[in-house]
């Protein structure tokens, strides 16, 4: 069947119904352009971006009246410790992106073993999502 590449617009022939790019390089280029278009913190150093994410999460938790502690070292067991009503959350903060409303939230899924909560700051809409250790959505009130 003949299809049109989603990245370059060229026609290509394939027998796979789900194929949308004429080759791997076109797919990678399209994905890179799409990410760059949506990434608000694109031109900021990686460490600075991580700190900004941690501050957004910290502000959200303080608004929810958590007692909050922030790590002073990049090699500590978690980024933030939040305490409220006897519950202690050892939080790993991540920056995520959602390319469209209602789309999949993309973020690094790896967590340190010592954390029990993952907080993802979605940089386009400036929303924060919380996940438990099994990457199931959870609410922190």
Describe this structure in words.
There is one protein chain. The chain is of the alpha+beta class and 141 residues long. 23% of the residues lie in helices and 28% in strands. The protein folds into two domains: 2-38, no CATH class; 46-138, Trna Endonuclease, Chain: A, domain 1 (3-Layer(aba) Sandwich), CATH 3.40.1350. The chain contains two helices and eight strands. It has a six-stranded mixed sheet, with helices on one face. The protein is elongated and about 60 Å long. The termini are far apart.
In short:
The protein is an alpha+beta fold. Helices cover 23% and strands 28% of the residues. The chain has two helices and eight strands; from the N terminus they run E-E-H-H-E-E-E-E-E-E.
List the helices and strands and how they pair.
Elements: E1 2-4, E2 11-13, H1 24-38, H2 46-63, E3 67-70, E4 80-84, E5 87-96, E6 117-122, E7 127-132, E8 137-138
Parallel strand pairs: 5-6
Antiparallel strand pairs: 1-2, 3-4, 4-5, 6-7, 7-8
